Amino acid sequence: MNNLRSGTNWDYVLAALVWMLLLLPYAFYKSHRINILYMGEDIATGVGLSVQKERTILMAIAVGLAGACVAVAGSIGFVGLIAPHLARRIIGRDYRVVLPSSALIGSILVLVSDTIGRIIAQPVDIPVGIVTAAVGAPYFLYLLTRK
């Protein structure tokens, strides 16, 4: 059954699911290396990590996951910015926990934004991207002014 609001259907979700099933476990497997890279290049090299190779692999994983999500859901602004920052603030800096927490926080943010967009101006639906931008823009400005 087609979803007329976004022009997608379950076939797109199944196509993205393949990428998720391939890349998410690999991302979690590599999360301890993100912790090492976070300590700095010198330390990462000192413990035997090939910094450039790991960065390339991790970037490819991130691009693949983001691409699969955007292909299905469209560009939903600020979710990728807000969720990881909130997860690090709540959980800490251990990326073995931050990665799944970011996914959970991001999905909750999109779900709440969609619900607000459907309720706030009934019978018209406000697109989820507008609601997430309304939430994300002030948080983005807060992040900019904090540093």
TrEMBL record:
The keyword Secreted does not apply. Keywords: Cell membrane, Membrane, Transmembrane, Transmembrane helix, Transport. It holds the Pfam family FecCD. Signal peptide: none annotated. It is found in: Cell membrane. It is a multi-pass membrane protein. The chain crosses the membrane at residues 12-29, 57-83, 95-120, 126-144. The keyword Transmembrane helix applies. Its main location: membrane. CDD domains: TM_ABC_iron-siderophores_like. Belongs to the binding-protein-dependent transport system permease family. FecCD subfamily. This is Iron ABC transporter permease.
